[in-house]
Design brief:
Elements lengths: L1 E4 L3 E7 L9 E7 L3 E8 L12 E3 L5 E3 L5 E6 L5 E8 L5 E7 L4 E4 L3 E3 L2 E6 L4 E7 L10 H24 L1
Parallel strand pairs: 1-3, 2-4
Antiparallel strand pairs: 3-8, 4-7, 5-6, 6-13, 7-13, 8-12, 9-10, 9-13, 11-12
Amino acid sequence: MQIRVNQSLSVSINCDAPGLVDREFEMDLNTSEPITAEMTIRTENSEIGLTNGSLVQNRNRLQYRYQEQFMINVSVNESVHLQARLALKMEDSNATWAYYDESTEEFVPVESTYQNGMLVTYTDHFSSWTILTLEEESDSPVIPGYIWLGTPSLIGIGIAFLVIRTKRA
């Protein structure tokens, strides 16, 4: 782990998984004020749907897979305005950084670039951040949930129409 700042930094780091020792993570913080930060690094968080291999869907109905087993939660003193660069060394250049939006309870993928073996993103806020990989579209069509609800309703209406028509005849 490498953290670079342009101001004084007081940081508390909690890492709950020994397997994270092998990961190379960089964070650059650019701010005009001293920073107090609390950082937790985990491999999973079942409370928000991040377990090894789990599928995560966002509001655009795109599905992502959580497979990198890297999640970081950073909080800083509220008054700090900052710009941050997050970078994680990894093999998959098709992955993306995403943060967890607590108000909508979903992950929001952000623009990420693959540079020199590192997946990189820039942000001006902290929350729970992770790496997600977009699932490739399958050959079978995805049937939206409303079709499953609408089909039985249409069948019921059709049967009712036939019953009424039969009684009139």
